Amino acid sequence: MAMAGRLWRGCNLLMAAFFGLAAAVQVVYLVPAALTLLVSINPSITGNGVWRSLCDLHSAGCIVGTVALACSLFAYAQGNILHEEEGRELFGLVIIAVWMRLCRCSAKNPLAGFRLTAAVVVALFPFVSWLYIYVNKEMRESWPTHCKTVI
């Protein structure tokens, strides 16, 4: 297997882990966790009609949710959107939509170049963000109690 293929599978495994962990608190991550795990096991599954239909349906729901949350945030946010629960949920939905799009595009052309670089960046983003939030005590102090116990 070529290096790009191994890297793509590794990114999918990392994202499956992220989506799986996130599914423990938000059920919306369950479908991408399963779809991404399947891609990490067998990347050619992205050409399967059932896989593509589930991906498209879930992505459409995430896009609708993203628009709704963005409208709510623009109307009611009072500072850094990462301090708002809706802001964190918005970023989660964007990550799902972007990742599902990358997976779906990989069916026709194996990821390489810019798309593979984007995949690596997107796969690392949730973990780097969690690390930043874990280290940034000021950010955690403004959270509601139920969020403080997650980390």
What this model shows, in words?
Helix content is 75%, strand content 0%. The N and C termini lie far apart (37 Å). The model has no long low-confidence stretch (mean pLDDT 84). It is mainly α and 151 residues long.
Summarize, please.
The chain is mainly α and 151 residues long. It has helices spanning 3-23, 30-41, 49-76, 85-105, 113-135, 137-141, 145-148.
How would you summarize the topology of this molecule?
Layout: H1 3-23, H2 30-41, H3 49-76, H4 85-105, H5 113-135, H6 137-141, H7 145-148
Helix pairs in contact: 1-2, 1-5, 3-4, 4-5
Poorly predicted ranges: none
**Count of DSSP helices?**
7
Helix share bin: over 70%
The H/E string reads HHHHHHH
Distance between the termini: 37 Å
State the total count of DSSP E strands: 0
Give the CA-based shape.
Answer: globular
Roughly what is the average pLDDT, rounded to an integer?
84
Using the CA coordinates, give the radius of gyration: 16 Å
Biggest sheet details: none
How much strand? under 5%
**What structural category do the secondary elements indicate?**
mainly alpha
Provide tags for this entry:
single chain; 151 residues; mainly alpha
